[in-house]
Structure formats: C-alpha cells, structure tokens
Amino acid sequence: MRSILALFALLLTLTGCGEPPLYKQQAYVFGTLVDISVYGEDEAKAQRAVGQVLKDFDRLHEMLHAWKPGALSRVNGLIEQGAGEVATSPGLVTLLQGAARYSAQSAGLFNPAIGHLIQAWGFQADSFDNNVPPAPAEIAKWLKAAPAMSDLALQGHTVRSRNPAVRVDLGGYAKGYALDVAAAYLKSQGIHNALINIGGNIIALGKHGKRPWRVGIQHPRQAGAIALLDLHDGEAIGTSGDYQRYFEYRGRRYCHLIDPRTGQPVQGVQAVTVLARGAQAGVLSDVASKPLFISGAAGWRAMADKMGVREAMFIDGNGRISVTAALAQRLQWSPGVPAATVVP
User: Fold this and answer.
1) Is residue 145 part of a domain?
2) Which of 16-20, 134-138, 153-157, 336-340 has the lowest mean pLDDT?
3) Which helix or strand (DSSP H or E) is residue 29 part of?
4) Number of domains in the chain
C-alpha cells in the first residue's frame, strides 16, 4: 500500500553539475505507483535494467492478482470447486510456501487464506466508494470455515487444499517479494546504487552518492511525512495503515486490514511501520507490519519480536506514537509531531 511517501523523490537532492547521473522511471503496477531510481550508472544501462524490472513486476502482478484472471485466481477457483490436486507453476508454489511460513510465524495473524472475507468486505476491488459492511451471517460463515495457509499442501508444482474455504490473497506479500526480486536482478546487472519504491514499500541498494537514500514515512492523518529515515544498503521499509484502502460507513472507518480471528477490519490503529534487512528484507517489511497492526496496542511489541523485527513504529487510533529504541535513534521527526514513547 502507499504508506511510505510515494513522493519520496522530492527528498532526493537534485544532481549537480559534474555529478553522476540519477536515472528515474515511474510506472503503475500492483495497483499503485512504482518509482525506481538508479544512481551513478550510464543512462542506457539503467534504462535497460529498470525496463526489465518493470516487465517482471507486470508478470508478477498478472500471476498474483487476487480477483482478475491469472495463475493465483485459477488455483483459488479450483480450490473452491473442491478440486483435489491443482497443478500450477513452481514459482507460484514457492511464493505460497513462503507466505505459509510467515503465517505460521505470526501465529496466523498474517493469513493470506482469508480472501473470501476480504472479498466480503469489498476490498478485492479497485474502488471502495460504495462499500457497506457485510451481513453478520456472511462473516460468521467464513469464520466458521476457518481458512488458513496450513490447510494447503504445497509441493513441486502442485497445490492441494483440505479446506475449500481457502481463497489466497497475497496483497500483503507480493510487493515485498517483488522488491527482493528487483533488488537481486539489479545487482546481477552490476547496478549497486538504487531505490525501488512500490507504493510505499521501499528497498535500498547502496547509496545516493555519498549519503544514504532518504525516504519519508507518511503521516497517517496529514499530508506529508511524519518522519524521515535514511535507508542503508539492503534495508527495506513498509507500512500498513488505515488511510489508503478504506471506506467510511455511518461515521466509522473500515480499513482493508482484517483480523482473521474476528472477521472485522482492525480498529484503534492508524499505522505500523517496520524496517527489515537480510536476504528477504522486502518480503519481511511487507508481511511483518500486518500482524503487528492486527495485534493492536497491547500486542504489537511482542509480535515484533515474534516476527524478528527490531525496528518498528506503532501509531494508535488517537495518533499516539510508540517506537522501538532501535528505530527511534534513526528517525528525523517532522516539526509539530507529538513526542513518541520509546520502548525497548
């Protein structure tokens, strides 16, 4: 989702005379703005590499779309029909295996198998202007069915589900996976200084000249950044918030982040931001913010530990900010932002 500023390019210092070039290209993929910057490379080389990254993004978007025709929607349809073993691409099976591992790590709070609930709330759509809450009986039906990633048997190029209520929605995984794919490809092409932003899920390679890449973390209730952060080589950042994909009904806000335990959109949380590093930094930055968000004010810090996240920020429904000590020391707060509570 677009939660770290898509306009992060405004934070980049314009290239001065005689300095290495900054190549930038934008596109619209995964239902959001994609912005890729490459520093210090020949323009033709950068253009070729970024062009291939965007082609890869298009391919992943088509394969993983939750409600339009593609490999994932085909698997979902066959599961719903009660098919036994469903053949699909090994690449999709690998993705599902990764999502299942993170679901288990989060004790099921990250649960991509609840696509029917997401659909019932109207969030498998491009617009939410006319959404209304589903009937309680509809929610109860899917809660009773209890779809989970552990219902899937995944091996080779086949998927088997013991629960026909499973409908996989990888909206909380795909962008992070795409970041990791893009970063690996750019490095394979000899590009070591780049910033890849998929609607606010961002990964950094190298530096922007002599300094780190700098991004802004979107304020959940105001235009602009709540804080700035320098990203180091291989680090990724992602935010889950209630302010991009949501609708209001009878004065109440319903966001797309659904608690699989209740079937209801999470209340009392505005945003969660996590910083990740390592071989799957993109995926972790995308995934981990969801179970922290769902855990709420009482449980987000313990869930951060469970997900292996040291740097995280939690903003409750009243705008109160809590941030881990490891992240607090790296943030540059915007003027006027209330003081944050720093937690170990």
Assistant:
1) yes
2) 16-20
3) strand 22-29
4) 1
